[in-house]
Amino acid sequence: MEYEDRFRQQAQRPKYDCLLFDLDDTLYPLRSGIAKACLQNIKDYMVEKLGIEPSKIDDFFVHGRLPYDNLKPDPVLRNLLLSLPYRKLIFTNADKVHAVKALSRLGLEDCFEGIICFETLNPIHKSSVSDDEDDIEFVGSRSTNPTTSNGTSSSQIFDIIDHFAQPNPSAILPKTPIICKPSENAIELALKIANLDPQRTLFFEDSVRNIQAGKRVGLHTVLVGTSQRVKGADYALESIHNLREAVHELWEADIKSEVAYPGKLAVETSVTA
């Protein structure tokens, strides 16, 4: 009898513990105009902060003065998210201010446990990196710089423009003190920060490059923005609103309670997606 009860509990355990969502172009579409408006902001950032020559800056963005009025509350997505009784986190390459503002405009600020953003993975108040688990926290609290896979840091700034101009989405990112998706180091650190098992985490992304990096780390993956699956994607959704139809198993687990997150979002110093 005891064996049967234990077996039944294991059989009823849901496949996933956490749903990890990208933000931009995943929870809201490209037509919002946010991505286009980000372009000039990242150009300025890369010249002023990263020391890249202005003549090379043609294809990047960072968040700042953006058309947030184009983002409207999405009650359909809100109800969909609140009906999912799992941990839910945002993992974005964006800065904290943008992530919080975008979620607020969408009416989704209480649908997520926290945010892993640019500041989470790249805190500016430390010049050294740390691999001490006790020194890593979510946004809004003390956090540390990430380490590279070999536990060392690098002070060299690589040419990110030339790197992302490469047509191969599986190209390996060079070592750098600044990390973000699609770096596998960034994804692994995000999982460590949130205490997530990649084998029990479902990762939602609009970027094929990020999906493939997530798959290499061991995540289950959902490509958002197309119904055509690509290498590395376990599921493909034309829109995040198609989630119930495409990944119906999320609602089949025998989980009784709904998960809601009242109050302020916890921010884990992270990056823009």
Kindly describe this structure.
This protein is 29% helix and 11% strand. The chain has helices spanning 2-12, 34-48, 75-82, 96-106, 118-121, 160-164, 184-194, 208-217, 243-246, and strands spanning 18-21, 87-91, 114-117, 201-205, 220-224, 235-237, 266-269. A seven-stranded parallel β-sheet has the order 6-5-4-1-2-3-7, sandwiched between helices. The N and C termini lie far apart (49 Å).
Please describe the topology of this protein:
Blueprint: H1 2-12, E1 18-21, H2 34-48, H3 75-82, E2 87-91, H4 96-106, E3 114-117, H5 118-121, H6 160-164, H7 184-194, E4 201-205, H8 208-217, E5 220-224, E6 235-237, H9 243-246, E7 266-269
Parallel strand pairs: 1-2, 1-4, 2-3, 3-7, 4-5, 5-6
In short:
With 273 residues, the protein is α/β, with parallel strands linked by helices. It has helices at 2-12, 34-48, 75-82, 96-106, 118-121, 160-164, 184-194, 208-217, 243-246, and strands at 18-21, 87-91, 114-117, 201-205, 220-224, 235-237, 266-269. Strand 4, helix 8 and strand 5 form a beta-alpha-beta unit.
